[in-house]
Specification:
Blueprint (H helix, E strand, L loop, with lengths): L2 H14 L30 H15 L4 E6 L6 E11 L2 E5 H4 L7 E5 L8 E9 L4 E6 L12 E3 L7 E6 L15 E13 L7 E6 L11 E4 L5 E23 L5 E17 H7 L8 E3 L1 H4 L4
Parallel strand pairs: 7-12, 7-14
Antiparallel strand pairs: 1-2, 1-4, 2-3, 3-6, 4-5, 5-6, 8-9, 8-11, 9-10, 10-13, 11-12, 12-13
């Protein structure tokens, strides 16, 4: 490919692929960061060769918007869920069932970039029980580290690739209750009316990945547009299939042991970001709405 052709390809891809603009004045990215942590631009290089690398960088940049929600009522703070900055560095959204009924001094946020024992207090909690969503007004000492989600999506195509970052329990760790920052990546499988027991139904996305304890409240965002919030993780749904196989064995006592194998499929559930934005619209002036057609670009 000639240099002229390469230059033309750059111009074409830059025009076709979306650009994400970071808020003005944003620098940082974590404790001890030695360089600015800005949103990488898409379309500057060959999209098929580097898009996955760029997308991975953009997903990792989302960590600056994520915070763990901690129960401060005991001597040892305990992580009870996740949250994310939405619209501003001091406005976090999470699942309502995590914070509902708790006093302001009983919870705090530890956002990415802080040390494990550095917590941000809560000024106000606004809950929408119908959507299982809550808005937290957080006291953030150094907001420049936080790059919030700036767009809300109300409808997404089936198969849209999404990711979520949060603090689920780590069952493989010596201390299973210790929070561990993890990234989940998958697809939107369907849009439906989720009707949890004991609570009202609400519009939701079904995710192709599970939502283990602690991931509730985590942001679900588009992989190719990581500043766009798709939803907030609110539940985990499991289905059990019929018996797939049976196995019978005889031990030394000639006793017959029968083993049944069943398949368990789990899906994450996320309340839809557009409805959350609409519920807290007066408190989220910096959030813009995004359309599914505009944001589901394939290049």
């Amino acid at each position: 490919m000639s240099s002229r052709t390469r230059a033309g390809w750059k111009e074409l891809t830059a025009a076709r692929l979306p650009q994400t603009i970071a808020p003005e004045g944003y620098v940082g990215g974590g404790v001890g960061a030695s360089r600015s942590w800005r949103e990488p631009a898409i379309g500057a290089l060959h999209p098929y060769k580097v898009s996955q690398i760029e997308m991975t960088e953009r997903i990792n940049a989302r960590m600056s918007a994520v915070g763990g929600v901690f129960d401060m009522s005991s001597a040892t703070p305990r992580c009870i869920g996740s949250s994310s900055a939405f619209g501003s560095a001091t406005t976090f959204v999470t699942a309502a069932h995590i914070v509902a009924g708790r006093r302001l001094d009983e919870i705090a946020v530890n956002h990415f970039g802080h040390s494990r024992h550095q917590f941000s207090p809560i000024n106000e909690i606004v809950v929408d029980q119908h959507l299982d969503a809550a808005l937290l007004d957080v006291v953030v000492e150094e907001p420049r580290w936080i790059l919030p989600f700036t767009h809300a999506l109300g409808a997404a195509w089936y198969g849209s690739e999404v990711a979520s970052i949060g603090w689920p329990v780590d069952l493989l760790a010596p201390d299973a209750d210790r929070e561990t920052l993890r990234c989940f990546r998958g697809y939107i499988q369907r849009t439906f009316l989720y009707d949890p027991p004991g609570r009202g139904s609400y519009p939701a996305f079904e995710l192709s990945f599970a939502a283990p304890p602690g991931l509730s409240g985590s942001p679900v965002f588009l992989v190719d547009e990581p500043t766009t919030l798709v939803g907030i993780v609110t539940a985990n749904f499991s289905t059990h299939s019929l018996i797939e196989a049976t196995e019978e064995t005889a031990d030394t006592t000639r006793a017959i042991q029968r083993t049944e194998y069943r398949s368990v499929i789990t899906y994450g559930i996320a309340t839809i970001a557009w409805h959350v934005w609409h519920a807290f619209e007066d408190r989220l002036p910096a959030v813009a709405l995004a359309s599914a057609r505009q944001d589901q670009r394939t290049g």
